Fold this protein.
Amino acid sequence: MSTRGCAIILAIVVVVALAFPREHSAQAASAALDARANPSQSLAIVVNRSNPINNLSFSELRKIFMGDRNHWPNGHRIAIVMLEYGQPERRAVLRLIYRMDEKTYQDVLLRGMFRGDVFVAPKTLASPTIVRKFVFNAPGGIGYLRASDVDESVKVIRIDGLLPEDKGYRLQIDESSKATDD
Amino acid sequence: MSATRFLVVQTGTIRAKVKHACTLGAFLLLLAGSLCAQQPEVTVSVDAQKLQELLTRIADLEQSQKQLLQRVAQLETLSGVHSPAVTSASGPVASSSSSPSLVLAGGSPKPEPTKPAPGNGQQSEQSPTMGETDHMDVSRTALNIRGFGDFGFYGGNQKGQTSSFSIGQTNLFITSDLSERVRFLTELVFEVHQNNSFETDLERVLLEGSLNDYLKLSGGRYHTAIGYYNTAYHHSTWFQTATERPYIFEYEDEGGILPIHMVGVQASGQIPSGKLGLHYIAEVGNGRTSNPVAEPVQNYVDENGHKAFNAAIFARPDAIPGLQFGFSVYKDSLSVPDSPRINETITDAYAVLIRPRFEWLNEALMIRHAPSGQHVYETPAFYSQISERFGMYTPYLRYQYVNASSHEPVFPQVGLRTGPSVGMRFDATESVAFKLQYDYTFLRRQGPIDGKSCIQLSMCAPSAAAVQVDFKF
């Protein structure tokens, strides 16, 4: 075999050797994504650290946000906090928990207040930082944050036994849903 | 409210005194400490009597501080508030609006919040609840106000009826959260009656306390929880699909046959029932007057000692979102002039399906009037209404029926009234809707309710049309 041939074979081997681990690592990353949700896309449900609740079923969560349940087991009144109109986290909550668009949500909320079904309207706050502060300060507070925005001042609760980083966690922010949600 | 304010103001004054006393005490202690510390090095001539006086004064101040702290704790317990330092912890949170209502707030803004201490397991004891956060500042009065109104053009072929532009009800719906568990609610309505004069009514005035999910207590003037419609739509045409309420739920001062309003107390809440979603409502109040020329709602004085009672149970099963069904029983005793006492029983059953784009209401009731020792009169009534929204358009159909005896002792003028209504609601914007409705109604013995036609015992079928603009603000 000529020197030129050896060089070609060597080049092919090097290319394959370099390519294989890359493909392998891509597969591993994909598997990791399957196993653990993207923290910036997962929506964490947060409560005050003093709240004894650690887990809610999705239907219980929906009842809380719809105003059908107004008190925690420890007696504190539930204080829902929503992010302001147009934010991706809010759109995700409207789509996944309320199952309605912004207009319908406003209408249902106003109707609930008018009828007396909703005792106090949810707080609407401007940013995740203020949401964290609110939930930290309000023993009955419940809100939502991107998992990447959560810190230790609030407690993340499991939804159907799953945390935001767990596989199968259903509260995911869909950035592409803006057009349909609004 | 004023008592609470007084307590809080007093608390603030005492707190200031405590602070002053603490500062003085600390200064004296520091002075004494520095004097002692300097003793080994510098010889200072201190009058022993003076020193004793100072020590005595420190002891007095400490004792006074102790008493004041105890008093502050007592007052805070009474008024249910925490210290100002805690109050300020979530200032901007309170300043944020609660959608979808307008918040009117007076008073100085709250200070910037302190940064939460991460991992502080004690914050629940130090932190106020949301209600406290909102309302501890006594200089702040927060009213949530929403308004609703309507305006229309109405006409019909009933004899004597003219076509007219009409101002409907202008409704200010006002709520105020007095604490975490107490809320004030009112509906202030400006309306025009048949004589073209304006009237102002507090249609609902309620003080509500929510103890837990199973018990909410309310007192004041409210809409009687007879069936569904009366507590679902109240005094706003905005929320209802059609231009008018079903005839059986017309207001008392517009010829309605039910005790729509009641002044009294109410208890309501959930019944532990899992996925069935049972709820209850129990009410005791003045009931309605028996005097046909008096104000129908007995707001201040009851004409008799007997109280009306209403009980309702309804279910919202998880399995079928939007479904609600239930029944109610209302009992009262009426003292109609020149007539024996009448026992009144109103039973209602309903099933409704309310979804964002679909609505199906079905409700039937029986009004039973039993004069002592005389014939019992039973008046059946029902309505059914269905609608579906297609974009901005919501076509709807309603059929209603009420059939009262010619000798009915409480509402002898009603007779038979039945027929369909068809209409279209057009939601032009998020706050303005147009409605067009056509009614075709068979009437028997329709006299004083609508005016001058369908004279006694004749049967006629007038039709009417309405164009209405509803808006919220």
